[in-house]
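Cross-posting from the chemistry board since nobody answered there.

I work mostly on the small-molecule side, so proteins are not my area. We synthesized fe (ii) ion and want a rough idea of how it might sit in this target. Sequence and SMILES are below. Is it possible to get a predicted 3D structure of the two together?
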Amino acid sequence: MTDRPSHTVLPTDTQNRALKPVAINRWMQRIHPHIEAAHMESMRALLAAVDAKDRYTRSHSLNVAKYAVEIGRRLRLPEPALDTLEVASLLHDLGKIGVADAILNKPGPLTKEEFEAIKKHPQTAIDILGHMSFLSDHRPIILHHHERFDGTGYPAGLSGDEIPIGARALAVADALDTMLSPRTYKRAFTTNHVRRELRHCAGHQFDPTIVNLTLRWLDEKPPRGGKMM
Ligand SMILES: [Fe+2]
């Protein structure tokens, strides 16, 4: 029998202490503000990329974020989920920086090829954001914001509850701002027109529960940009 040197095996509590030395804890506390600052700087850079593509996209994203958070509150989403929804909404069309301006700004109907190019923008956003671990909760919302409740949307053809709740809320907020904002080729819809469109699309394009609570919101207080009629 050989003697086993006892000092080669540390007691478990000593091993645990060794994994969390005081110096690492102090270092983590020191570096934490820098990590938060780096996240904020990354966010500003991404929003600047949206802004650089198209000023309309930036103001659209700001409106959509505001509407999505209001819808999220009415869905009683918890505060961290609302924060995630707000940031995802700000970045939802980031992938349009990969779509030609001639297609994005085309006033008339799109060809099949042009629409296929537009349909790539959710995946392009994910490709851009893919390496940012602090946006991992935001990516499914961004990727699926063009899914439709009946399963005929893109990119994955998800339906109903398969679509993340944040993406379902974002889809309605996105449509709301598109309808309420004037474009070079169309006037802003009246709030009554928006109500009719939302009712028409409930259960097809949009989650009917989210449509109902958005209609109640419109009855209480129309969002900025909406004309009462
Ligand atoms: Fe989009």
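Reply from a structural biologist on the board:
Welcome over. Reading the output above for you: Residues 92-93, 121, 145-146 surround fe (ii) ion (CB under 6 Å). The CA atoms of residues 180 and 226 lie 5 Å apart. Happy to explain the token format if needed.
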